[in-house]
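Hi U.,

Before I forget, here's the chain from the pilot set. I'm dumping it here mostly so it's searchable later in email.
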Amino acid sequence: MTGYGKASAEFGGKKITAEIKSLNSKALDLQTRIAPIYREKEMELRAMISSELERGKVDFSLYIECDDASAATPINRPVLKSYLEQLRSVADELGIKDPEGRWLPTLLRLPDVLTRTEVVELTDEEWTVARGVAQQAISRLMDFRRQEGAALERKFTEKIDNIAALLTQIEPYEQARVEKIRSRIVDGLNSIPEVQVDRNRLEQEMIYYIEKLDINEEKQRLVNHLQYFRQTMQNGHGQGKKLGFIAQEMGREINTTGSKSNIAEMQNIVVRMKDELEQIKEQVLNVM
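Structure:
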């Protein structure tokens, strides 16, 4: 869900710029900074963004950069003229010699001489340009997200393939594990000669114990989850939460397999599977 987009356009001697960036978040958390002239359009801008972005911590800015001529603060001529006339009148009354225009710096510091009195209204033409700039920035962010999504899909596919390959590496150890368990139990009983063993009961108990360590169901469920994860990736956007849930189910099957794996070789493979799955869990937060 990370992304960035920026767009600009010229209108009426000023540069209109829209900038938007997003970070990971479980829901849409939208923050806006909008130039005063466009504040009346804030709800429309929010609707534009929320229609495209379903999740993420989003920061959106729409601002104006004016050229030097339009950015300069105008001089309020009537106020300046009134101040000048008053100063000359006072100077005449008090016999103060006119300093031949040296009063100008003082005049410019007097209240309301330098001030913006005009009220700027947003025209339909300017809003059309500003809205287009905002939409272009959003589109560029979405392009950024799509590129990131394609990279994530390749990464997920690689990790899913790795887990599937590791799962097949467990199989050679399963039969050997059963024989090892059987031999260990029998050898332990034989080391106690005074104990009389009911062979039928022993066989039943061993079958029960070995069945509790069977991982065929966990393996089959994990295979199903891997396939479901692949299918979900192909179902378009808005699947991030679903992929997260599937990853959790995959983790349960891997953990159960690990708890039943009582030989080092199988446990090592399970650890590697967990490492691959953890990388999926970290990156699935980036999916919408």
